[in-house]
């Protein structure tokens, strides 16, 4: 498995993988995906040869990002690295891809900087919640999003 920065050539396949993960993440079009990648402090893809295994986009404090979940952490944490999305493709499941991507996030954040994220609890994303709890995350809050149609658990580690 190779971890490397996301390149513009990756965009079409990353967008397909992202949108296949709805409702666990929000659907994006190419323009919005490129915008998020541009504001990300960390934009990393995991590959095995030509096979995409997964990717992560993470934003640091101070980003010009309008996500309700990012803004929740901005109001409460002076420093943090917010995992906006970490998605493991079908080809990367069970191969340690998620763990490798999160190791890159924690390494990038460095000591004393919390890594933060959200996980859907309504509708439930039980697999993601188990993964995050197993990797040291704890729930630090909850909020309703998308006009009350979703509830997320806000998590932090480190």
TrEMBL record:
<dbReference type="InterPro" id="IPR016890">
    <property type="entry name" value="UCP028520"/>
</dbReference>
<dbReference type="Pfam" id="PF00583">
    <property type="entry name" value="Acetyltransf_1"/>
</dbReference>
<protein>
    <recommendedName>
        <fullName>N-acetyltransferase domain-containing protein</fullName>
    </recommendedName>
</protein>
<dbReference type="InterPro" id="IPR016181">
    <property type="entry name" value="Acyl_CoA_acyltransferase"/>
</dbReference>
<feature type="domain" description="N-acetyltransferase">
    <location>
        <begin position="1"/>
        <end position="158"/>
    </location>
</feature>
<dbReference type="InterPro" id="IPR000182">
    <property type="entry name" value="GNAT_dom"/>
</dbReference>
<dbReference type="InterPro" id="IPR050832">
    <property type="entry name" value="Bact_Acetyltransf"/>
</dbReference>
<keyword id="KW-0808">Transferase</keyword>
<keyword id="KW-0012">Acyltransferase</keyword>
<dbReference type="GO" id="GO:0016747">
    <property type="term" value="F:acyltransferase activity, transferring groups other than amino-acyl groups"/>
</dbReference>
């Amino acid at each position: 498995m190779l971890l490397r920065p996301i390149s513009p050539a990756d965009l079409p396949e990353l967008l397909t993988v992202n949108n296949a993960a709805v409702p666990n993440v929000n659907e994006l079009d190419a323009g919005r995906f490129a915008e998020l990648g541009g504001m990300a402090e960390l934009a990393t893809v995991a590959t095995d040869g030509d096979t995409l295994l997964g990717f992560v986009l993470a934003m640091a404090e101070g980003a010009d990002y309008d996500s309700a979940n990012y803004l929740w952490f901005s109001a409460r944490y002076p420093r943090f690295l917010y995992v906006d999305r970490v998605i493991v493709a079908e080809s990367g499941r069970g191969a340690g891809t998620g763990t490798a991507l999160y190791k890159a996030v924690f390494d990038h954040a460095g000591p004393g900087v919390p890594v933060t994220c959200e996980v859907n609890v309504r509708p439930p994303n039980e697999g993601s919640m188990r993964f995050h709890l197993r990797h040291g995350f704890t729930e630090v809050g909850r909020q309703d999003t998308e006009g009350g149609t979703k509830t997320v658990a806000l998590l932090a580690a480190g």
